[in-house]
Amino acid sequence: MSDTASTTTLWRPTGPVELDLVRESGWRAWPPRLPEQPIFYPVLNEDYAIRIARDWNVKHDGAGFVTRFEVDTAFLRRYPVRRAGGETILELWVPAEELDEFNAHIVGEIEVVRAFRAEA
Fold first, then answer.
1. Which of the residues 68, 69, 75, 97 has the least number of beta carbons within 10 Å of its own beta carbon?
2. Residues of the chain with pLDDT under 70
3. Phi/psi at 106 (5° precision)
4. What 3-state DSSP class applies to 26?
């Protein structure tokens, strides 16, 4: 988690369907969670996001993307950092019912920084 001014950089690995919904938002918001997705989890480092996009999203969706975005740092303090495995496997757990408020604290646009596709 890096602080620049009053924002924190987060990453999110995503598949093509979710990315299309982000594009439809004008690159400003994450779509609502599905009923089986009670948590939205952005991650705290690009390497972890790459591993998920490349190794999970490609396998299940045919493509995986790593996005980067900035969120108001003061707002993020309500979400403790969760370790989901090794020392660098860090993420935030945002309850689905708080996603609209989370989106309101995104500063700037969500950008795609890496793309992975299944081999033909």
1. 97
2. 1-5, 120
3. -75, 135
4. coil
